Structures are given as structure tokens and as C-alpha cells.
Amino acid sequence: MAERLIYLPLGGAGEIGMNAYVYGYGEPGRERLIVIDLGVTFGDMDTAPGIDLIMADVAWLEDNRDRIEAIFITHGHEDHVGALGLLWGKIQKPIHCRRFTGALARLKMEEMGQPVEHIHIHAPRPEVVSAGPFQVQFVPVSHSIPESSALIIDTPAGRIVHTGDFKLDGTPVVGEPFDPITWHEIAKEGQGVQVLTCDSTNIFSPNPGRSEAVLANPLLDFVMSQRQLVVATTFASNIARLRTLAEAGVAAGRKICLLGRAMRRMVTVGIETGVLDRFPPVVSPEEAADLPRDKVMLVVTGSQGERRAASAQLSRGRYLGIELKEGDSFLFSSRTIPGNERGVIRIQNQLSEMGVDLFDADDGMYHVSGHANRPDIQAVHDLLKPRMVIPMHGEHMHLREHMKLAEARGIPSMVVTNGTMVEISGAAPRVVDHIDTGRLYLDGTALIGAMDGIVRDRIRMALNGHAMVSIIIDEDDNPLPDAWVELSGLPERGRAGVPLAGNIESELAEFLERADDRTVMNDDRLEEAVRKIARQVSMEEIGKKPEVTVIISRLAAE
Amino acid sequence: MAERLIYLPLGGAGEIGMNAYVYGYGEPGRERLIVIDLGVTFGDMDTAPGIDLIMADVAWLEDNRDRIEAIFITHGHEDHVGALGLLWGKIQKPIHCRRFTGALARLKMEEMGQPVEHIHIHAPRPEVVSAGPFQVQFVPVSHSIPESSALIIDTPAGRIVHTGDFKLDGTPVVGEPFDPITWHEIAKEGQGVQVLTCDSTNIFSPNPGRSEAVLANPLLDFVMSQRQLVVATTFASNIARLRTLAEAGVAAGRKICLLGRAMRRMVTVGIETGVLDRFPPVVSPEEAADLPRDKVMLVVTGSQGERRAASAQLSRGRYLGIELKEGDSFLFSSRTIPGNERGVIRIQNQLSEMGVDLFDADDGMYHVSGHANRPDIQAVHDLLKPRMVIPMHGEHMHLREHMKLAEARGIPSMVVTNGTMVEISGAAPRVVDHIDTGRLYLDGTALIGAMDGIVRDRIRMALNGHAMVSIIIDEDDNPLPDAWVELSGLPERGRAGVPLAGNIESELAEFLERADDRTVMNDDRLEEAVRKIARQVSMEEIGKKPEVTVIISRLAAE
């Protein structure tokens, strides 16, 4: 059978987060595979309470492990590398990335006790990494973290450009600028670009993106005009922003103090790997606490309202000896990711109660995005002249809008969501298979399936409360009349004004007294009858039906 | 003791939602009281899973019921009238409002089986409602619902202007325009305005607000340019918007179909009370389903992503015989309230998967706010020349910013949050008391306290899962060795690969065998020991500690 080139997203296509993409080349069903990125996304109370991390279900990769050549990581953001340590054990293939990304990947592997010697560090293009039928180059692009890279993937069926996350920034402050000359070359070499797989995050942003460099002066003006303690928060991995903030603070005569483990780690990794230079000296929280308030600037984690990050800690009171006060200033040099608003507002209100003056990104004055906007995406289409465009890294509506943009300009395109395998060696993308895919949840230390019912049960208990009923059947197969009911997350008293648990117990006692042997002898039947009574009584008393767990204990004859 | 005028917010001050304000006049501790608005706010999974409605705890009003003269309702939004039926039984005083608001208040009372004859309908100023020492007038203001009213509250200590929710709209399409002449009179009468208690919602919006009327042409252009079925969603109570949308549809040659109970009810109430005229005829969903797609426009509920509203239903597939398809258009003529983003994005993605083209408010092209912006608020300060300004209806940061605005212009002001009683008869607000206040939750049909621990238990079960342990102690006070463990919302298997429940049971069996009488005979001690073991085993196996409920059954000697 003829060889073909395939593309299969397992995560990140139809959502923003947990990126995991697969390319394959070879005979159908026997393609050799490479994996691009293994990222995480974060749970929320609505859909995944108690879940620490969410990642793509890689069962298909596990089943086809002998076909996988390698894993490539485009950059060090959590949604691209965060699942590496958790999922590597299921794949166990070499990991290729650049130095800074490699340092972060190493931490992810170490955290999970995985062998770090499988991480291979590469220089950018022109270095080529061979992985079976794939020849891969890392091409520097600008983004909100250093060393973000697009991948040039050359295959016998043509060249793929996989952009990773990128923006068009000629002056990214830290890290490498977007270089149109290189991209022009990439488009012209050989047969040109067969497939452009392209970041879609900002497809709805109508104006050209702005450079990181434009923030320096506004941020300096901002810090200069504050009279007391200044706090600024942004993503820990946005090292360019960290330096811009720190330099503004120093220029305004302040000492810089970094709060938050992730932020200190990023700066350390940045310095160690050489991507970050000229970072001003910092002081410890203890030193900062002893300095006059107008001589300090804190740069802190928690711009998304994360409960355990430094911003949240400061909003709750004294933290590491530092306490915010009336007249202090707190800048969110960030954008609130949709879904995180509640957490951010909670913190802002608490800061406001302390008398702290709040400042947000102010329509882009103090923040720029790390992703290409619509005109930038269009410019990349123009520059690369691909034979087809596959939109990636976006909610379904982003992918669809990106597809429409490509098609309007005569480039074949398709919305390819997680689990859809498309052949991309032809003139246009063509669906060839659907893979069962889904999400894995990290719950404590356990990896569970999103569809296992565990999280569903948690959501139901949270919405409906939980009633537990203990029934004892004696040695002669007679139920003891006093069923015991414990309620968790349910009103103590109902409409009747008497305790709800007691009310259910009475109904159950009555039922157990007259229950026939057929019911009593059958666990399922008995459980179902008991559950029904507990739910009915609750419905009458408090207007809702709780989750019910019935424990039946049968005493053995001695 | 000298009489004084007091202000006490019980809800709505330090949050947006569940408005409930109290004014009092008289000797300290014996003031006669009026209540302004009794609204609700909605729960979310993060803070109140399973809770249907949230409202102010009115225990203080209940304790001081004999001092209350009346309840006034400014307008018919849920956050102002939604708790009336639920809380009226605790207050039992006359309710005063205007006609349209009264029709909605009546529905709220009826739903809860409360007597509607306590609702008194009034004409706007110059009609005066007497309530003890208070002389109250309803003054029409523009807002996103008809008949929104500010209250002029004349007292022996001077005039209060309580704005309610308002914007400065001279052409509100439906309902009454904001009339600066009236406001000028109000400021000049008698001793002028002692206190302005003022909406703070949009204090951070720097530009003057825009009129509802500006939307007519863009909405018409929008509908005209669509080729297939058009769906538009907005707040059901925004009757002006409903008519503008419907008129755009009719002008574009389409039949209008309203989907969603709340929306049909609002239009009916609007027509019945005379505030809504010229609403185009509508067709039923069945008729709509039979018409060509380009001849129909649906106007539907669910702009905030509510799971049971029409938008969500349509995003899940066929609803009332109508199914959205490739090429249909869906307009959100609304702003997503912070915190609702996840629900809205979920619907938008599902619509996108159906091939539906999505349109949002597009920077205000298809939506205007119902609240006064910063320059409008400033204009009202100028117009009324109050001796003091009390910011209300806002998160803490809104109230604080509003206070700063007033103070910068030389008007005494203060951030007064829920539960703070201030004297407002002097030259500036002065705190005189703090009232224990909080939130009541409607859970099914039960009203529970936010701090009762019920919701806390639900959140804990959702985050940590729930393990139930049943222990039986026999007639001779010996524990039966086979403890039974049921898990809910927890991984089945842990690190060891064996069932977690079985693992806990083994540990418990071992413990029960060697447990001393002192532990076995004491329920609390035994429960604590069992809980500790269950949590320890879970921590080792799955890296997290579940909530544990222990049921101990002691068999009676026969």
C-alpha cells in the first residue's frame, strides 16, 4: 500500500491546553510516529473538582509504542511540557528539545522519578534531528517564554511547519525575535511547505500583535508614579516581562524581591541556560520587609488567581513577613484567562479591602499577548504559502475561524479536533480514522480516566449531598430495624422541622419491618429499595434527592 | 437621645448581586426602618455547589421586625426582587413598587405561596408613599429593564437619593428616559440632597455610557446580512433589547420566535402592564421549525451560559423541534458577567461544532450596558450636589473607586460594606455599628446558612472524595473484624495496583483485632482511629486524604 503522511491531535485541538500532537509517515496503519508536546491543563470545580492536572489520554500511543520514534517539545509552558514526566513512562522514547526547554523538561522528569538521560538538547536550525522518516529542525519563534520553537518536519511526503505557540515579535526583550528572512527561506526550500499546522489562539483579535518591547516605558512610568510598596504579578515563565518589570523597579530606585517558587525557578533556569542576562540583583522577603515601602517592588506569582500562589497569599494577610497596606499598588501585568475570573476578582476584592490600589493591563498598556493575532496569522499564511493549513491550539471556534480565514484565501483547510486522524499528503486534508481519545486526570498521585465516573460522583455529591445508610441483616436473615443514616453536605432539618436523618431512619425502619425475603436476601434489590426511600423522604423534606450509598452488613451465623 | 438617620447594607455592598439595603430614622437602637430591595445572587461550583439561590441573611431584620415600616423594590431584576418570596415571611411588611416591578414581585410571592395583597403599586413622583418617618417617591431612571426607579427618601434629617440601578439614557427604546430636569428639581427642593447612595457597577468604565437606541441600526444590518437561521440571545428582562432584536428580524423579512420561559413571561408582563407596546407578533417553535431557515429569527434565553436555558439546549442538539445547522448565525447581544465565561465558552464551542457562526457584542456594536459609567456617575454627583456619597452595588474595588472619585471632588464618602451601620445625618458618614450578617442559601426547598458547614462538606467531598466505613461491634463489645469500606469519588486502585477499598479494609481488620477496650467502647475514639487509618492508607495509595464517614453499629445483646 502507498505510504502516507498523517496528523492526529490527541490534545489541544478543540481546547486551549494539554497540547499533544502526532505525525506519522508510512503505510496505512504502520506509519512511524513522532509526538509533539505533552502538556497539561488545569481542572476547575465545574468539571473536574479535586483534580490537580489534566492531560491527553495517550492509550493509543501506548498501544502503538513500537511505532513511535521520538517526542519533540516546542517550548517550556505547562500546556506543552507539563505532562512529560507523568506520561513518559507509557511511551519511553527519546525526548528532543532546546536547552531552556530541556532544563524545564528535566525538572518534570525528575519530579516523577523518570530517567532524564532520554532528554536530548539541540541547537536550532540548521541542526537537523533525525527520527525515522522525519527530519526535524527547531526554528526560533517569539512567544511569552524564551526559546519557543516552531518545528520544520521534513518527510518523504513533503515539509510540515508546526508553528507551536508563536507571535510575530521582532523585539521580544528576552529570547529570539521572529525572523521573516528565515521563514522566507523555509518556504522556498525544496518543494515548499506541504502543511502549515498553526497556532489559532488569537484568531479573533483583529489588530496586529504588539511587541513585548512596547511595555518598557509604560511600566517604568507606572512604577515611578507609585508612592508606596509596588507589587506586580505576571506568568512566572514570561521571563522577558519579569526582567522588564524588575528593570522598571530598579530604575525607580527600588529593590526587587521575587515571590513564588515558580518565579524564582524560572529566573534561575533562565540564567543557568544563558537565555536570561542582565537580571537585576534581588533581595529576600526578609530584606524586603525591612526596607522602606517606597524602596521595594515585589514581582509575584498568581496572576490567574491561583489559591496557593503569592498574590493570593498576600491578599489574605501577612506573607513571609510582608503585609500590604493602604496606598500600596498592585499591578496585574497579565490577561485573565477565561474561566479564572472568579479567582482573580476574589483576590482583587481582598486587596481592595486592605486599601491597595489595583491596576490591570489597562487595554494592553501593561500587557501584550504571546500569540499571533489574525493579521499576523494571515501574514504567516502568506509567507509560507502552504498547500494546506491545519489550525491547532484553540477552542473549536478558534479552529473554525482559522479554517475559514485559510479557505477564504484559497488554501485548503479543515477543523481537525482531538482524536481525528487526517491524511495530509494529498492536496487537502482528508479524514482517515477516528481514535478513541479523552483525558487523563492526575488525582493526588493516581492517574484516572475522565470517564471513569470518579469525578462524576464527586460532582454529584457536591450538587446533591451524600446520604449514607447502614443496614444490618442478622444471622437469621432478618434485618435489624434500626437502619443508621449519616448525612454529609445536606441540611440537618427539612420541611417538617425534625432532623432529616431521623426522618429517613423512621421510614426505613418501617420498610425493613415489612420487607419480604425476596428483597432482604438480595443485596441489589435491598439497596435499590433503601436508596429510593432515602431519596423520596429527602425530596419531600428538603426538595432535593441526595446521592445515597447503602452499606449492607450480613452477620454470619456463628 | 437625639434622632439619627442610618444606612445599613445587608447585601450588594462589596459584591454585585443579592441587593438588600436598610435605612432607619429615630433614636439610636429604636430607629424606624425601611428595606430597599430583596434580591438573589446565583451559586457557582467553586463556592456554593448545588445551591440554587443565594440571598442576604436577614436575621437582623427578623429580630427587629416590629421596627420595620415597609419594603420598597426599585426594579424587577432578580438581584433586586428575586428573594422577595423567600424572605417575606421573615419580615411580613407592606411591599411598595411600581406596576411592572409589581407584576414580577407578584410572581415571586406566588411561587413561594406568600400573600400577594401586601404588594402596593404606586405611580412615580410626584406620588409620595409614607412609611413611618419616611416619605418615598419613585423616580423613573433608565436601565436594562423597564420602570427601574431611583428612590427619593425624605426624612426629618434630610433627603436621601437611592439611585437603584441606573444609566443616563435619553432614548432607552422601552421604558422611561433619564430626565435631567427632574433630577435638577430634586437637587434644589428643600435643603437639597443629604445623601446620594449610588450604583457603582461601571465605575471603571472610562467613557460615557451609550444609549440602547444606538443598537437598532447595527442589529438590523446584522440580521439583514445573515443567510440562514438567526438566533440572538440576551437577558430576558431586557425588554427594550428584545423589541429591537424582534424589529430587526421583522424588517429583515423574518418571523420571530421566543424561546425560553423567562423571555415569554417578560414579554407577557411587559404587554400586560403597558410598558411594552408594538412588539411584533411571534410564532411558536413548531411554526418556526416549519418555516424556511432564512425566514426565522429565534430570540432566546441563556446569554450567560445557563445550563438549562434555551441557548444551552440548542447547543446540545434538537430543541422543541428546532436544530441548528452549518451556516446558521448565533448572536450574543450581551456581556458575559465575570464568572460565567466557562459556561458561555462551552456553548459557543458546541455551536461551533455544529457549524454555527458566532457573533459576540463586538466591542459594544451589539450590546450596551445598563449601568452608568464613570463620567455618568460624576455627572450625577454634579447634578445632585449631595452632602455625602455612599457607593453601593459593586464589588469592594468598585465601591472604593467610587469613594475615591467622590472624595477627589470634595464630597465626603465611605466604603460601607454589608453589615456596617453608618450614621448619615451628619456632615459625613460615620460607622456606628456592625451587624452580624451573611448569606442564606436556597438548597432545594431548604434555606440554610452559608456558614452551617453543609456547603463546606460538599466542597470537601468534591475535592477529596468520600470514604464510608461501617464497623459493627457485637453483643460482647468485640468488633467484627470485617469492616466494610465504600468509596465515592475516589480512584478504585492505588499505587499498589490493588483495590483501595480492600486495602483500607485489611488495615482496619488488623487494627480492630488489636484495638483495646478503651477505644472500642468509645464511639468518638474509635471513629477517630478508623478515620485516621482510612486517610493514611489513602494517602499512601493515591496521594490524597478523602473525607471519611464512619458508621459504628453496636449490636444489642438479645
Description of the structure:
- The structure is a homodimer of 558-residue chains.
- Chain A has 558 residues and is an alpha/beta fold.
- Chain A folds into three domains: 4-207 and 369-449, Ribonuclease Z/Hydroxyacylglutathione hydrolase-like (Metallo-beta-lactamase, Chain A, 4-Layer Sandwich), CATH 3.60.15; 212-359, Metallo-hydrolase/oxidoreductase (Rossmann fold), CATH 3.40.50; 465-554, Roll (Ubiquitin-like (UB roll)).
- In chain A, 31% of the residues lie in helices and 24% in strands.
- The first copy, chain A, has 17 helices and 28 strands.
- In chain A, the strands form six sheets. Chain A has an eight-stranded mixed sheet.
- Chain A starts with a strand and ends with a strand.
- In chain A, 54% of the residues are buried.
- At the A-B interface, helix 11, helix 13, helix 14, strand 26 and strand 27 of A face helix 11, helix 13, helix 14, strand 26 and strand 27 of B.
- Chains A, B: Keywords: Exonuclease, Hydrolase, Metal-binding, Nuclease, RNA-binding, Zinc.
- Chains A, B: This is Ribonuclease J.
- Chains A, B: GO terms for molecular function: hydrolase activity.
- Chains A, B: Residues 17-210 form the Metallo-beta-lactamase domain.
